[in-house]
Design a protein that fits this description.
Blueprint: H1 3-23, H2 30-38, H3 44-87, H4 94-106, H5 110-119
């Protein structure tokens, strides 16, 4: 329904945009851009600074990746603990079990902590017969 007018509008805009890019010297020749970039002359000091900055950025990204991995594994372990603990509680009805599992899943780390202090009641002592 709307495809034909949108197609006509986009086809009508392509030549003026291409002309505007040509007028200001914008071309989509990435090979030329790469050659221009390689022509930038850096002093050895500037080159060393650029390499050090790139190394620092990569180290920071690697550190963040490690922190994210640890956080994700802790959240997964906490979620699994909540699901196992909830499933072992016969006094808790099924609806509450589902609610606590969803809280643990959608509120990582904090959900299991809330479950531990609020939702988890001490298990009833086993009766000896």
């Amino acid at each position: 329904m709307f495809a034909a007018p949108l197609l006509a509008l986009s086809l009508a805009l392509v030549p003026p945009l291409a002309q505007a890019e040509a007028d200001v010297g914008l071309d989509n020749d990435f090979g030329q851009m790469n050659e221009d970039f390689q022509r930038i002359d850096l002093t050895p000091e500037q080159q060393a600074n650029a390499e050090a900055a790139a190394g620092g950025i990569m180290a920071a990204a690697g550190g963040l990746l490690c922190v994210g991995l640890v956080f994700s594994l802790a959240a997964l372990a906490a979620f699994i603990w909540v699901v196992v603990d909830v499933s072992k509680r016969p006094e808790m009805d099924t609806g509450m079990k589902v609610v606590w599992a969803l809280v643990a899943w959608f509120v990582p780390i904090l959900g299991p902590i809330i479950y531990y202090f609020v939702g988890r009641k001490p298990a009833a002592p086993a009766s000896r017969v």
